[in-house]
C-alpha cells in the first residue's frame, strides 16, 4: 500500500503516518518526491486492509493506493492452471469441452421442462438449467414452482442424464436445493448477499456465481473468495452483462471482463448472452463472441413457446433456433481450441 | 401497454397480436399510423405484465412500451400525504421534524458506542445508528459483533432514549434483530434480496431500505412494494449514492432521485452523505444539499476515533465535526420548512 | 408518439392536448384506459419531434413516448443491404472481406510509420491507420506531427498501396486532411461535434465515426444521420468501448451494440479492441469476439516499440503479435462467413 | 508515479524498468515488499506522463499508478483563493454574490428574448443566457438563429444591462461570438473538443465550460487546463449532470462533484439543474441543493411559453415560477453565506 501525502504536509504529519504504520505492524518506507512525499507500506496488506485505509483520515494524507489484489484463493497467481470443476457424473466445467447450460428460465410444468430438456440435450447441451425459486423484480410476478420445481428437475436429470443447475435464494433453502441440484446458482441480485455466499462455502456442491449488475471484476472475485474462504473451492463465474446507460439491450455484455478474468483467476468463466441482451435475436452472435473471447461455456435460455413463458419470454430461444446456434457454435469452438 | 409493430408487419401478424391480447383478457385498440401500426392494450397491465411483455416475441412486433408504473402501494397517486412512520417512542420519520440518524458504522465496543451515542444525541440526532451484522466486501474484514452488538445497542437506547436502527442481513436473523432494533435496515447490496424483503414484510417494525448501487428509481420502489405487499406499510427509503464512472467519490449521490421520489411516492426519503462520498470532508455540504432538495432526514456516520475504526473510518465524522454540521443544518432546515 | 395523461387528468386537460396535437398538424387518437388516458399521435413525428415533446409541459401530461426511430437515412428499414463503401482503390468496407485497419496510434517518424506499415500489410491488414492530429486529454502531451504526419501517410500509401485512415479534429482542417487521407476519422470525443459532422457531410470521402464514450446506439445513429443528411452516405461506424464503472479495462467493449447495429442500420460496423481495453494482451481475444459477433472489420493499434510510443503504448501490439493475431483471425473469419 | 511489478517478476525485469526510468530522466527508488516489488519514480511526472505510462508495456510490470494530479493551473494547491472572474461590467463570478444565469435555451425571436430577459432580471438574475448556435442531437431540429441570434442578445444586454452568455460550437465562430457575448459557453458535447478549447484559450473572454456527459472530475479539470495553458485563466466550470443508468431524470446531477471541485480547484463552479433533470418541476429543489452544496451560482432555463419552445421546453420554467424559485433561493443563499 502507498500513502500519498498532501503537497503541503508537515514533517509532523509525515511522522504520525509513519508511526501509525509501525503500530499496525508494517514497515514504512518514506520517499520524498519533488512535490509529494509518499510512504510505502511493506507487508501483506490484506489482513488489515481496513485499518490501513483509515490512514486516509490522518491529517496531511491525500490518498491511499493499495498495491496487492484483495483476493488470494481466487487468484491465478498461486494456481496457474484453470480449475476443472466436476458437475454431477461425467461433466467437467473448465476443461477443453465447453459447458453448455441450457433450459427454461423458470420450470413451469413437467411437459414444458421435459420437452425443453430433451431438445437441448439433442442439440448438444450438457447441463440443464431451470429456475424453481425465482427472484422477480415485481412481487406480483410468478415466483417459481419452488419445491415442486426441484422435483421436476430431478426427473429431468433422471430421464436425460444431464446434471442440473438451479438458483438458490435464501441460506435456509440451501440444503434442500443441494439435494436436487448439481450446481447451485447465485443470481446477479444476490452476488453480494454475503450470508448466502458464506453458507454456500460451507457445503460442497459447485457454486455458479453470476456477476452483480454493477460489480467490478475485483468485487466479483471477492464474492468468489467469500465462498472459497469457507472451504468450497468449486466456484464457476458467470458474466451476464452489466448495467450501463445503454437501453437497446437489457444489460451490456462485458466480454472484456471475460478476458481479464481468464488472466486473473483460475476459476472457469461462463457467458450468459440471454440475460445480457434480453432479446432472443441477439443471443447467437454473442454466444459465438463469448467463446471466441475465451469463455469456458455458455448459459442460454430455451423455451418451447416463448410467447407463453412465465418469465424472460422475449430472450428465450425456441428449440430449433437453439439447435441452429449449436451447429454454428461447433465451428467457432473448434477454432477456439474447444469441443462441444 | 402499447405494442409497436415493425414497419413491414403483415396484416396476419397484427391480427395475431390482437388475438393474443384478447386471450390475455385485455381490450386491444389498433391505431394505423403513417409508418407503424400500434396496438394499445386497455386494462390493468400489472397483473399480467410478464405475459404481456411476451408479446414482444411474436413475429412482426418491434417493441412493447408499458404505460402504468408497476408499483401501486408505494405510489403517491392513491396516497397523496407523505407517510409518517413512528419509530420507537416519540420519533416520527416523514413529519416536519427531520430524522437525523447518526452513530458509528460498526458497533465495536461499549465505550465506543456509548461515547458516540451521547455525543450525537447532544448535537441533536434523534435516532442512533450502529451495525452489529456487517456486510463486508472482503471475507477477511471484521464482520461485526453480531448478537453482542445488538445487546450494546439496547443499552445505548436505554441510556440515551434514542430509538435504534441496525442492519439485518439474513431472513433467519430478523426475529432476533427486531427484538433489539426500532428500525431494521436493508443494505444496498441486499436491496433486491427478495427473500429478505418478503420476510421483513411479514413483521411490523419499520424497514429502512437503501437503494441498490445500480437500481433505478422504479426498481427501488418495486423493492419497497415487496415489503409492503406482504403487509408492512412502514418503509423508509434511503438514497446513498449510485455507482457511476466517477471515482473521486465512493458513489455518486443522486439528489435528483430524492426529488423524483418525493413526487412519486408517499414513503419518507432519507439521504446518506457518508456512504455517498466516502470521505468525511464532503459529508457536511451534501447533508445540507440533501435537506435543501427536500429529504426527510439524514443518516450520518460518526466515530470518536476514525483512524481506529473497524469500518468506514475515512468517511466518519468526529463528534465535534458532527456537532458543527448540525448547527449549520438547523438553519438550512428552517429555510426548507423543517425542524431539527 | 404516445402521450400518457396523469391518472387524475381532467377532461379539459385531455382536450387541450388533443387540440395542441391538431395545431401541430397531427391526427390525435384518444384511448381511455382503466387508469390512464393515452393519446396516440398519428403522423411522421420526426419533423416536429421537439414541438411534440413540448406537450410534456402541458398540465395533466405525465409523459411522452416516441414510437418512431429518429433516424431515417441510417436505418436498415428502407435499405436492407449492408452498404459497401469504397475506400481508395480496390478496398471495400462492408463486403464479405473484412476491413482490417492497423497501424500506430500516432505517426511519429518516417521510420516508425514505414516499419509499421510494411509489417501490418505483410500480416494481412488492408487499410493503414495513423494519427497526424491527436486529441489528447492533457495539453502537455504530444499533439501529433500534423501536416508533416499527413505527408508521411501519403508516402506510406504510395509504398504499400494501402489506403489510409486518419483523424480530423477541426472543420477547417477537413479539406487538407481529405487531400491526403482515404477515410476521415471522427474520434469518440468529437462524436457529437455537430459542426464537424456537418462539414464532413459536405465532402465525399468516407467518414469513420467512432462511438462517443457515453453515446447510446440511437445517438450514434443520429450522429451518422448528421453526416448523411448533408449529402455524404459513406459512413462507417466504429464500436470502441463505452464508459462504465469498470476500471480493469480502459473502456467496456459493447459487442451487444455491434449486434444491434447490424440489425438496425445498413452502415458497416468496425470494432476497435485496442481502445476498448487499453492493454495489448486483451486485444486478440476481443478482436476474435468482434468478428464472431458479426462486425465488418477491426481497427488495431500496432507499434514496433510500444515502450517508446508517443501515445497509447500500453495498448499497442508489436508487429509479431499482430501477425499471430491475424493468423488466428483468419480461421474465425472463415467460420463467420468472411475472408481476410 | 509508482510502478508495481508482477509477483514473479525477475531481477532482470526489475533492472530494465529501473534503467528505463533513469533514461527518462527520473530517479527510481526500489522497494521490495513481501509479495511485490514496487519502484517509485521521483520527479515531476507530468512532463512525460505518456512515456512513463509506457513502462506498463515492459515485461514483468503489472501496473502503473500516478501520484500527481495531471493538472496544475486549475489546481487550488498553488492558488488557494477562489478565482473571481469579471464578466461584462460589474458582475463577478466566484465572489460572495451568486451568479444567476437565466434565459431561454434558444434565442427564438426578439419578443421571446426580451420578454424573458426582462422577467429574469426583475426576479434577480444577473446574467442572461440564450443560445444562438445550437448543438442538436437531430439534424432535423432547429439549429438556432445563429448571427441574427447574436444581434438579439446584444439588444437584450443593451436594454437590461445584463451581461450575456452564449454557446460557441466551432473555432471559426469564436471571434464573431466573442464580439457579442460576455461569456463564451462550451457545451457538454464539446467538452473534449480540444481544438475549440485551445482556440478559446487564445482569446480573453471568460469561458464557461460544461462537464461532458461521461467526464470524470479529473478530465473536466484537464479540459479547463487546456484553455488556461493557452493563456486565458478565466474559466468557469459547470456541473450539468452526468450520464448514468437512471432514466427518470435526463441526466444525474452530481453535487458530490461540486464539493470535490470546490476543494481541488480555484475556478468557480456553477450548477445547471435544468439540463440535469430535464423536467421543470425538479429544477427548484436541485437549485437550492446546488447552492447548499457550495456552488457559486446557477444556470436556469426560462421560457415564457415552454409548450412552444424550439428546444428544451419540458425543462424550462415559466417566468413566474422562476421568480418564486429566486425568492426561496434568497433564503438558502443567506444560510450558505452568499447573496443574490
Write a short abstract of this structure.
With 340 residues, chain A is α/β, with parallel strands linked by helices.
Give the proportion of residues in helices of chain A.
Answer: 25-40%
Number of helices of chain A: 11
**Poorly predicted parts of chain A:** none
**Overall mean pLDDT of chain A:** 95
* Strands ordered across the widest β-sheet of chain A: 7-8-9-10-11-12-13-14
Distance N to C terminus of chain A: 44 Å
Secondary-structure-derived class of chain A: alpha/beta
Strand/helix succession of chain A: EHEEHEEEEHEHEHEHEHEHEHHEH
* Cα shape of chain A: elongated
Would you mind describing this structure in some detail?
The structure is a homotetramer of 340-residue chains. With 340 residues, chain A is α/β, with parallel strands linked by helices. Helices cover 34% and strands 18% of the residues of chain A. Chain A is built from 11 helices and 14 strands. In chain A, the strands form 3 sheets. An 8-stranded parallel β-barrel of chain A has the order 7-8-9-10-11-12-13-14, surrounded by 7 helices. A 4-stranded antiparallel beta sheet of chain A has the order 2-3-1-4, covered by helices on one side. Chains in contact: A-B, A-C, A-D, B-C, B-D, C-D. At the B-C interface, strand 2 and strand 3 of B face strand 2 and strand 3 of C.
Amino acid at each position: 500500500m502507498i500513502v500519498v501525502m498532501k503537497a503541503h504536509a508537515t514533517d509532523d504529519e509525515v511522522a504520525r503516518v509513519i508511526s501509525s504504520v509501525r503500530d499496525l505492524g508494517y514497515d514504512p518506507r518514506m520517499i520524498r518526491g519533488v512535490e509529494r512525499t509518499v510512504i510505502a507500506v511493506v507487508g501483506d496488506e490484506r489482513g488489515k486492509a481496513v485499518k490501513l485505509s483509515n490512514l486516509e483520515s490522518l491529517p496531511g494524507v491525500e490518498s491511499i493506493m493499495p498495491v496487492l489484489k484483495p483476493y488470494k484463493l481466487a487468484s491465478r497467481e498461486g494456481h496457474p492452471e484453470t480449475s476443472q470443476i466436476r458437475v454431477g457424473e461425467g461433466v467437467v466445467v473448465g476443461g477443453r469441452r465447453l459447458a453448455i447450460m441450457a433450459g427454461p428460465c423458470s420450470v413451469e410444468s413437467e411437459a414444458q421442462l421435459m420437452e425443453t430438456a430433451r431438445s437441448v440435450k439433442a442439440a448438444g447441451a450438457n447441463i440443464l438449467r431451470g429456475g424453481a425459486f425465482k427472484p422477480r423484480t415485481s412481487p406480483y410476478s410468478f415466483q417459481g414452482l419452488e419445491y415442486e420445481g426441484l422435483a421436476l428437475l430431478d426427473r429431468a436429470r433422471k430421464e436425460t442424464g444431464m446434471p442440473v443447475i438451479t438458483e438458490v435464494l435464501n441460506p435456509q433453502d440451501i440444503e434442500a436445493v443441494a439435494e436436487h441440484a448439481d450446481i447451485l446458482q447465485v443470481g446477479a441480485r444476490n452476488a453480494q448477499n454475503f450470508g448466502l455466499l458464506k453458507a454456500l462455502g460451507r457445503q460442497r456442491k459447485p457454486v455458479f456465481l453470476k456477476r452483480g449488475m454493477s460489480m467490478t471484476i475485483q468485487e466479483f472475485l471477492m464474492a468468489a473468495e467469500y465462498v472459497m474462504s469457507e472451504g468450497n473451492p468449486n466456484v464457476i463465474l458467470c458474466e451476464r452483462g452489466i448495467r450501463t446507460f445503454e437501453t437497446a439491450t437489457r444489460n451490456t455484455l462485458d466480454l472484456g471482463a471475460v478476458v481479464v478474468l481468464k488472466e486473473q483467476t483460475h476459476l472457469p468463466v461462463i457467458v450468459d448472452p440471454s440475460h445480457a441482451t434480453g432479446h432472443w435475436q441477439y443471443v447467437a452472435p454473442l454466444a459465438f463472441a463469448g467463446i471466441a473471447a475465451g469463455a469456458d461455456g455458455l448459459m442460454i435460455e430455451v423455451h418451447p413457446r416463448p410467447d407463453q413463458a412465465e418469465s424472460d419470454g422475449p430472450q428465450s430461444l425456441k428449440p430449433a433456433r437453439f439447435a441452429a446456434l449449436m451447429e454454428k457454435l461447433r465451428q467457432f469452438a473448434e477454432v477456439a481450441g474447444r469441443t462441444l
